[in-house]
Amino acid sequence: MFGSRWFDKSLVLRDGVRLTSRIWLPNGNGPWPALLMRQPYGREIASTITYSHPQWWASKGYMVIIQDVRGMGSSEGVFNGFSQEASDTSETHEWVRSLKECNGKLGLYGFSYQGFTQLTGELNSKPPDCLSPAMTGMNIKDHWCSDGGAYWWHNNIAWGLQIAALKMKRENNLFEWGKIKLALENKSYLTEGIDILKKYDPNSFVLEWLENLNNACPFEEFKPVSTWIKQPMLIIGGLWDPHLKGAFDLYKKSKEAGGSPEIIIGNATHLSWWEGSQESLLKFFDQHLKSDEKFNSKNIKEEKKIWNISLNKWEELDNKFHSEFIFGLKSDGTANVEVEDGSLTINSKGSGWFTIVNDPWRPTPSDGGHLGPNPGKFNRSIIDKRLDVGVFQTNSFEEDQYLRGVPALEIQVKSDQPNFDICLALSLVEEGNEKVNQFSTGFLRVKNSKLSEECIYQITMQPTNICLIKDSKLRLSISAAAYPAIGVNPGFGDGNIGAPSANHKVITLSFCLNKTFMKMNPFFNK
């Protein structure tokens, strides 16, 4: 067994705050190239839910530094989230490079919040030699807390409570830690989570995000340091990850800054990755941290690939379409009653209408996808049998067809309440309609609409890559709720209210399909 060495070491920042890191070293004599992860969950864990243990990286010839960010773990200070990281990151980079065990080369790794800490720093600070941000993004509103203006109810509250529990443990408030853990385990966080957060972590950024959405307040803006994202960069995303749009946005920003980023979009949820992901990272770091030759993008083949959901294989990731479909929707009024009534037609106009009612006592449930409590692939056949779901389906495909890019639906609707949600799901239906394999979802929260007046809305869905296999069918499902992925819309007011309450209104949505269509947009907006 490889016996790496580890020890804890502290950095005292300019403002006097002490940050604690755990450092693993390879056997033998250094110095070595360094891999740095800055995270809030505890340096002992080292994101091993998705990454190999630092001991493995040390066995490959790397010095590994896992740092507790300000106010978390054993580090001093108060944790305020995203806004605190720029200066702390830059000071940490300088410190790591100064360590006697480091040969001066620095690579960054980590996902989610740990991905964000790779991208933010002081403008004039020296960039890392390479970085590998995974499952992250820079736009708080669009990449971290909402889809189509609808707050990520399950995701955000669960994450906020995890941070709150870590703070309680740090303060040795073990009873409070237990109450938070119990709320997550018995699912009461869905109804009581906001109140629990207000009690134990009133300054949580999760609460701030909800307040911003409720009151249409601007979100704090973060931009990656342009000199950093010009460096060799491997972006990792997951088809079932809530931050996937952030990965594509980061790729675009890097190209605009003059970089040559690599990108891998795998068959992954936020916490469950694919086999081979660690080897891809190791290859990337070996290429850019162990070569004595200066990085030259012309001599290196960029890795750009995406997983095909139905074919179960890797494909080149590009902005090309195999077929530029436009789908029309047709119904005689019973798309929510009879599967055969709702038609999804290829390259033809829609027609007809249908109506659904959102009863807050029994809102349409959601699961799977990128925001469900159990993310990933999901058979939604039972949900689609509900009468509060409109179902539109193609005929069986006579040959394989491909959907690559970002699905978008433009739909005309009127509501009897000023506020409402439109929730979408795309599925691949196998012969016999028994298995409805959901592969992309999307949401839109509408506020202050004019009562009973038809308006056209556009809903963007999760990026996807799938082959519509011969004899299968494509299905689009439309509902007015998707709980608990997003909260149940009350129908009035400014609140992004989550769990159903006695104050929630029954919402009736009537859809006119004459001007309704669905199309695919490219992965990378030009």
TrEMBL record:
InterPro entries listed in its UniProt record: AB_hydrolase_fold, CocE/Ser_esterase, Galactose-bd-like_sf, Xaa-Pro-like_dom, Xaa-Pro_dipept_C
Hydrolase recorded as keyword: yes
Transmembrane segments: none
Annotated ranges, domain Xaa-Pro dipeptidyl-peptidase C-terminal: 282-519
Keyword Hydrolase annotated: yes
GO MF terms, alphabetically ordered: dipeptidyl-peptidase activity
Keywords associated with the record: Hydrolase
Origin: domain of life: Bacteria
NCBIfam families per the UniProt record, alphabetical: CocE_NonD
UniProt protein name: CocE/NonD family hydrolase
Taxonomic source organism: Prochlorococcus marinus XMU1424
